[in-house]
Amino acid sequence: MGKAESPARWIAAELNGSALTLQVIGLQGEVLGEASERHVVSSASLEAALLRLAESWLGTATVPVLLAGAPGQWWEQELRAVPCTPLPASGLARLTASDPRLAIYPVPGLRQARPVDLMQGDETRIAGALALWPQFDGVICLPGAETRWAHVSAGEVVSFQTSISGALMGWVTGDPAYRGSFARHAEGDGFEIAVSETLSRPERVAARLYSLHAEAVLGAPSAAAGARLKGYILGMELAGARPYWLGQEVVLIGDAALCGDYARALALQGVQTRVLEAKACSLAGLSTLVPQILR
Amino acid sequence: MGKAESPARWIAAELNGSALTLQVIGLQGEVLGEASERHVVSSASLEAALLRLAESWLGTATVPVLLAGAPGQWWEQELRAVPCTPLPASGLARLTASDPRLAIYPVPGLRQARPVDLMQGDETRIAGALALWPQFDGVICLPGAETRWAHVSAGEVVSFQTSISGALMGWVTGDPAYRGSFARHAEGDGFEIAVSETLSRPERVAARLYSLHAEAVLGAPSAAAGARLKGYILGMELAGARPYWLGQEVVLIGDAALCGDYARALALQGVQTRVLEAKACSLAGLSTLVPQILR
Fold it and tell me: Could you tell me which Gene3D superfamilies the record lists for this protein (chains A, B) (predicted)?
C-alpha cells in the first residue's frame, strides 16, 4: 500500500569515503526518506548496499539511481578533465546492476593535469551551488577530511586544489600518543592567534603541534588546546590555498561547524564568506542530471 | 648454574612510546642479553614487564635498573629544565618496586619553558654522544616518530625543538584511504626535488600529499611515490628546524635508514652530518649514571 502511494521516482546516492548515503525522491520531487551505511569499499558491496537501503521504497518498476563520489576506477569510468562544467551535459552510462529494480548511473568526477588532482563527489555540490546561484563566479571551498578549493567561472570549474589537512586533524586527535592532549571540541581563546601564527610561519606547524602536546603533558592549563590545534591546521590550509582566497569572496559548502571555523579564519584575513548547506547542494546538483535519465 | 656464572650487574631499560627494551649488563660491562616487550602503558605494567623480561638473569641479589623514557608523571618525577646537562649529576631516586630483586631508578627527562617542549628518552642518547665525544659543541638531531633537534654547548642542552613529522609519515602511510598510494620503501628519484620543493614552499605540503595520492589513483606512474612522500615530509621538517641546522654541522642519532634520509636532505642544503648508532648512545649515556647507583 505505502509503496503504491509513494513510489520512488529516483534516488540520489553518494559515497563519501566508505560511507554511502541515500535520498529517495518522490514523484513531486519531495524527499521520501533517507538512509545510510558504512564500510562500503567495493563496487560489489556498493550495489548490495544500494539495494538494501532502497528496498523498502522499491516496487516492480526500475528506479534510477544517480550515484556520486564512487571511485571511477571501479567501473573504468573516465574522469572529466578541467576546465569543464562540474557535471556532464550528456553521456551518463548505466551500470549493469545485478538487480533489475535499480538502474545505477555513476556520476563522473573531475581530474586536473597540473598540479595532478582529482575530485569525486564535490563536483555535485559545486553543480548544486551553481544551480542555486547561476551567475556565481569566484571561489568555492568544500572543507572536510579532504578540503577542496575550486575556481568557478562561466559555469565551469577552472582549477582546483585538494589538501589533506582535515585528515591530519583526525590523525592527531585519534593517535593514542596525542589524543589525550586535545579537548577536541574546545572553543576557548587561541584559535585566531594560532591561525595567524601558522599563516605567517607555516613551516613550524609540526613543532607547534608537539608543543601543544607538551603543554598538556606538563600540566599547563590548556583548555583551548583543541581550539589552537584547529587554528594551527586551518592556518596551514589557508597558507597553502592563498592563491585561491586572496582578494576573493568565498562560498563555503560543508559541515556547519567546520564551515564556521573556516569563515572565522578567513574573516581574520579580510575575506568575506557565505555558507551553503552541503546536502542541499548535493541534491540540487544531482537534480540537474535527472532530465538525462528520466523522460 | 648459568645465573651464578653470569650475574647481571645492572640493567639499561628504555621505554619508547609503549615499547620497553632491556639490555642486561654483566660484571665486566658486557651485554649479557637483550629483551623487549610492547604495549607497556602504565607504571604497573612497566614494573611487571621489567620483572618478566629480566627474570632469567636475576639471582637473589638486588639488581639496579636505569630506566629512561618513562613519563615522569607516572611517579610525579620532576623533569629538569634546560639549559642543563642531559643527565643529572646526582639525586636519582629509587622507585618502591614491588619485587625486591629490582631497584628501579627512573631517569628524569628534560623540559623547556619557551617554546614549551619536553624530552623523555632522547636525553640519554645525547648524554651518550657527549660521553663518546666530550668536546662536542653544536647540533644533535634525533629522528623518529618525534624528531628532536638539540643545541648542545659546554656539555649542556641549551635548547631543543620536537616535531611530529615522523608521526605524520606513519599516519599517511597507515590510513586506509591513502596507504595504497605510497610504496613505503620506494627509493626512486624525486626525493631530492621533493625536499627542495617543500623547503621553499612548506605551506603547500598538505596539497602536495594529496596530489601524490591523486597521481596513484589516476594510474600515473608513481614508482617513486614513497620517496617523494618522504621528501615532502622531511622538507617540512627541515623548513621548521632551519634555525637549528643552518650553518651547522649536525650529528644524527637514530635508525640508520632514517638518518640516511636526513643526511641526504641536509647535504642538499650544504650541511655536513655524522651518524651515531642510537642503541650505543643510549647505553653509553645510561652508563654514565652507573656510579650513582653502584658503589
Answer: 2-keto-3-deoxy-galactonokinase, C-terminal domain
> B residues 88-117 near A, CB within 8 Å?
111, 115-117
What DSSP character marks residue A34?
E
Q: What is the ipTM of this complex?
A: 0.92
Q: What is the CATH code of the structural domain delimited by A1-108? A: 3.30.420.300
Q: Looking at CA atoms only, how far is residue B222 from chain A in angstroms? A: 12
**Chain B: closest CA distance from residue A99 (Å):** 29
Please say whether the beta carbons of B235 and B198 come within 8 A.
yes
pLDDT digits (tens, 9 = 90+) for A86-121: 999 999 999 987 788 999 999 999 999 999 999 999
Say yes or no: B15 contacts chain A, CB-CB below 8 A.
no
pLDDT per position as a tens digit, B265-279: 999 999 999 999 999
Q: Which homologous superfamily does the CATH classification assign to the domain defined by A121-295?
A: 2-keto-3-deoxy-galactonokinase, C-terminal domain (3.30.420.310)
Please give the pLDDT value at position B1. 38
User: Among A286, A283, A266, which residue's Cα sits nearest to residue A275?
Assistant: A266
**Alpha-carbon distances, residue A174 vs A177, A190, B71, B174 (angstroms):** 9, 21, 20, 13
| Cβ-defined contact of B116 to A240 (cutoff 8 Å) | no
Which residues between 141 and 180 in chain B have a beta carbon less than 8 angstroms from any beta carbon of chain A?
145-146, 161-165, 167-168, 171-172, 175, 177-178
Q: How many CB atoms lie within 10 A of CB A269?
A: 13
Domain boundaries of chain A, sorted by first residue: 1-108, 121-295
B220 vs A: CB within 8 A: yes
